[in-house]
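Hi Prof. W.,

I finally got the GDNF family receptor alpha-4 prediction working! I wasn't sure whether to trim anything, so I left the full sequence exactly as given:
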Amino acid sequence: PADEEHWKTDYNKLAALVSGKGCSQLAGGTTNPCLKATHVCNLSKKCVRLRTDYASICTRGAGSEDICDRRKCHRGLRNFFEKVPEDFTKRILFCPCQDELCGERRRKTIVPNCSFQYNTKPNCLWLLDSCLEDHICKSRLADFQQNCQPADTSPDGCSQHSRAACLQAYMGMIGTPMTPNYISNSSVEVSLWCTCESSGNQKEKCDQILGMFESNKCL
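And this is what came out:
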């Protein structure tokens, strides 16, 4: 019972926010979907605690590789996306934006200065090697490749005919060495933080890795 109380969600407030009746409480009445998603998360003690946990770890020294503990940051992100129900995590990560203010909030959801970016972009083949050496990342990459394989003939662009499964697999990649993210505040395009320059005779393989995230019709 104590645990149930600890993780209790205020469902009356949640229902009001989800239906839009609670929008007047947000940002002076404006409807920023990402801000609204955060307020919905705040009504779940589990969601807000795990979100606060990773944000605290990832912002500590963010922007400086010497101080930012990327490994702990990634672990905190995995905890959040694994343990918090999809209803909350999908709202936060995939909130639909009409302006750059909302888009910036969406892009910064995973604290990219620590979890996503390096001072310089590494080669994508190096990212792949790092992933294959990590059993969690290796397994999740296989899941992502299976569920996010594009298909021109499919109505939703997915060979498995399930965009929901692809989005779930995408969330599974966050907190791994191959963490993806939005590339700007004004776009829904996502990518890895890497480059295929100086790939030599492995340029084609490198482009394929990047192409799994960039311009993927299924994703």
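Residues 45-59 form the longest helix (15 residues). Does that look reasonable to you?

Thanks,
D.
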